[in-house]
Each structure stands twice: as structure tokens, then as C-alpha cells.
Amino acid sequence: MKFGIAIFPTADTLGPAELAREVEARGFESLLFPEHTHIPTSRKTPWPGGGEIPYEYPRNVDPFVAMAAAATATITLNVGTGICLVIQRDPIIMAKEVASVDYISGGRMLLGVGGGWNVEEMANHGTAYPTRWKVMRERIEAMKEIWTKDEAEYHGEFVNFDSIWSWPKPVQRPHPPILVGGHGERTLQRVVRYGDEWMPLCRQESYAEDIKRLGDMAAGAEREPIPASLFMAPPDTSRLEKYQEEGFSRFIFYLPPQHFDKLLPQLDDLSEIVQKFA
Questions:
Q1: pLDDT for 28-67, tens place per residue?
Q2: CB 62 within 8 A of CB 93
Q3: How confident is the model at residue 191, as a pLDDT?
Q4: Which fold has domain 2-277?
Q5: How many angstroms from the chain centroid is the CA of residue 239?
Q6: Domain residue spans in the chain?
Q7: pLDDT value at residue 43
Q8: Which of 38, 84, 177, 214 is the least buried, fewest Cβ under 10 Å from its Cβ?
Q9: Mean of all residue pLDDT scores within the chain
Q10: Cα(226)–Cα(224) distance, integer angstroms
Q11: Residue 122: its pLDDT value, please?
């Protein structure tokens, strides 16, 4: 069983390098950074969590900058996005960013992806909410072409470019694992089509049926079993044991960014859970 931490990298907590060293020292396998490029002040789209949008959402450091800092400060810790808003990033630039972080880390990057929820935020990047899933699929497919071919091209409705050269290539082959976030009606189809792992938010008591369905869909597509990571996993040993029995192979705890005198004790408490499973 693998355990990770997810946290918005902001100026209100430890810097990415120091944070990564603390996370690695406590036995965690991974450190994931969420992202929002910005939050429109109109606030027309309500936060899915209800109430006011969290303080950290418009204040996070770019996740690729944070990952690079975290990677150079650690030896074994995987660094990743949880999640990256692919629909708000140019795929050619992002392909280079992902490959560069994987190169800098020596093959320790995890690419968590999602479609996003903030209509105005994605609109500022030129993506319309109704088309976001197709945009995400095309951009991921295009990046796979860039990562795996010396001369890459892609021709879709939203992504279109003729043959290009782009290096470095990722250290991990064929590319860093793509963890597809979400739990919508068609999420599992997306996981099977272009993902390497499923990463739902912890919002229900059981995922046994979902994980079985994912396994059946993978087999139907002639794929090996697809692993699943639980995002915002509960710090409750009995619940984690149940989720482990259902088929999850990684638990990711979410921590709000806060001063180190509050953050480090919380990391210590979570590391005790990790040691119980170890």
C-alpha cells in the first residue's frame, strides 16, 4: 500500500523543497500539488464543496515549479499533480513541462488530471465548459504523441499541429502514469481510454462496485488491471482497511496549507497510520 500527501503549495506553509523533505522523511510515497491558475472574482460558479471557496485556491504556486523544487530536494519521493487542469494548458508546452519534471526527478512524476469545475476560470483560457472532456482527451492524446515519438503530430478538433520535434522525453516509458480524477458517469470510460490509474475523491462509503466495473472494462479493452488511488482519503485506519480490501493501492491525504508548527504535527499523525499499514 502506498500513501501520499496532497497540498496546495502556497506562501502560507513550507516551501515545496522543505515540505518534500519532511514528507519523504515520514515514509510517504508521493507528494501531489493541486492547481488553479487563478480564481475569477465574479464567483459565478459555486465551489463544489459548498460555502466560500478555500483561501488557498487563488494563492498556489505553479505545480510544475513546485514539483521541480520538490524533486531536487528528495531521493525517492514521487512528485505529481493532484490534479492538473489540462484543459487550461497548452499541450505542447505541457508535454515539455511533464517530460522536464520527469527528467529532473529521475522518473518520479505522477500526472493527475481532471476536467475542472470553474466555468469562468476555464473560459479565461479559451475552453468552453461543455467541451472540456473532449479538450482534455485530445490534449492528453497529443502529449502522448510528443512523449513517445521523435517526430510527433496530432490533428483533432481542438488540438492540431503538424510534425514537431520536442525533447526531453520522459524517463518513464512510455510516459509518467496518468491518474484520471473524478467520479462522474463516464469517468471510468476515460480511465480505460487514456489513463493509467483512477483517482476518485473520497465521497462514498464503498467503491467495490466501481473498482469491479473498472476491472471488467479494462479486461474488455484487453488491458491489464488498472490500479486506483483514493484522493482525500480519511485518516481512519478501519475505513482505510476497508477501502484497501475493495482494491485501492494508494491513499492520498489532503492537508490545507498552514504554518509549519501546525502542519508538521499533522504529518506526524498521518505517518503513524502509514507505519501501521507497513
A1: 999 999 999 999 998 899 998 888 999 999 999 999 999 9
A2: no
A3: 98
A4: TIM Barrel (3.20.20)
A5: 22
A6: 2-277
A7: 85
A8: 38
A9: 96
A10: 6
A11: 97
